[in-house]
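Sequence design from tokenized structure. All designs in this work follow the same two-part layout: the structure record, then the generated sequence. An example of the structure record is given first.
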């Protein structure tokens, strides 16, 4: 995995989520190209955007700062970020950083779930993050259009570019939707859905809520475990030990 070999045999792809939390000076190749600089370019962009957003410099269509975030995604684009968000809510430093802010997630196309995600929120102070690599995921785009209508009905069509951003690589469809392509954050084919929380899928909404420095600590923690798995002997390797214990439990 760390060598960039295509161990995802069904799709003939590398599996490089470890690159998403690797140090800036690391070298992790995919098809002979070090992907770490590109990863850090996106993280630097997220850092800059989240700082602008959290400082109040990014304002909505009415001139008000935005304090609420709704992240629209499904599967790994929803579960991982929600898991980390739930954990960070119990951390004193993170809780302090999130004061006065709300982060919600929308995955289900059930109208009740849509209503829950925007309940008591003011469109004038809400930013929506649409998470879809291709910008064609059926459930995500249905929800994105519904939330877009909620914004437009209150603030007008010109508000979309101020109140909606994207995590996607399909800049053509992002632009057609009304989102400024400059406010689209990329991730890559070698990021599996269930591991995508360390990409812009999770780092962006979590940074908007808690600030990039706190999210970077989470990434550094993940990187430390990657290093442990990569360098520790089987006898001292925690995940390997857990694997053998699970096998033993199943057999007995």
């Amino acid at each position: 995995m760390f060598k960039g070999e295509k161990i995802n045999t069904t799709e003939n792809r590398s599996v490089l989520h470890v690159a998403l939390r690797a140090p800036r000076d690391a070298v992790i190749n995919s098809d002979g190209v070090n992907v770490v600089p590109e990863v850090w370019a996106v993280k630097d962009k997220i850092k800059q955007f989240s700082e602008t957003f959290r400082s109040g410099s990014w304002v909505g269509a009415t001139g008000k700062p935005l304090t609420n975030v709704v992240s629209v995604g499904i599967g790994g684009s929803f579960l991982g970020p929600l898991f980390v968000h739930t954990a960070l809510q119990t951390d004193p430093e993170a809780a302090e950083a999130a004061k006065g802010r709300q982060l919600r997630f929308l995955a289900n196309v059930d109208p009740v779930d849509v209503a829950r995600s925007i309940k008591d929120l003011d469109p004038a102070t809400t930013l929506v993050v649409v998470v879809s690599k291709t910008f064609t995921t059926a459930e995500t785009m249905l929800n994105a259009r519904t939330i877009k209508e909620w914004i437009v009905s209150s603030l007008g069509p010109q508000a979309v570019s101020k109140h909606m951003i994207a995590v996607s690589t399909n800049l053509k469809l992002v632009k057609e939707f009304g989102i400024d392509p400059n406010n689209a954050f990329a991730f890559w084919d070698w990021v599996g859905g269930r591991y995508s929380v360390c990409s812009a899928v999770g780092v962006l909404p979590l940074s908007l809520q808690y600030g990039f420095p706190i999210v970077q600590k989470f990434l550094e923690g993940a990187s430390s475990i990657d290093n442990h798995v990569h360098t520790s002997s089987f006898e001292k390797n925690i995940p390997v030990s857990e694997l053998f214990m699970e096998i033993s439990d199943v057999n007995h």
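The chain has ten helices and seven strands. We note this feature because it recurs in several other targets discussed in the main text.
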